[in-house]
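chain below, 109 aa
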Amino acid sequence: MAEESFYDKVYEIARLIPYGRVTSYGAIANVLGTKGTARMVGYAMGHCGGIHPPVPAHRVVNSQGMLTGRFHFPSPNLMQQMLENEGVEVENDRVKNFKKLLWDPAKEL
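prediction:
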């Protein structure tokens, strides 16, 4: 049996993010035991289009709650629209109440 790739592990964690919540690239890296690889998590999110089961990449933001991955979506506004459809408020490309909405997989799993 083939070993799971880093991207596969990232996608597994991202699929666990609850509806209406967000997490950060760094939080995913941390729970995988690869602290300091937030950028690699970002690369994984940028390549998850068309993966099945789908990966809710719109729920992954930077450590300040900024929608830094928005340009990886078909439209730069789509990430914000998807979050807002889940009740997440976004202002100036940043999740409002980020600390309240942050889902930390290291604490939740």
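Residues 6-14 form the longest helix (9 residues). The chain has a mean pLDDT of 95.
thats it, cya
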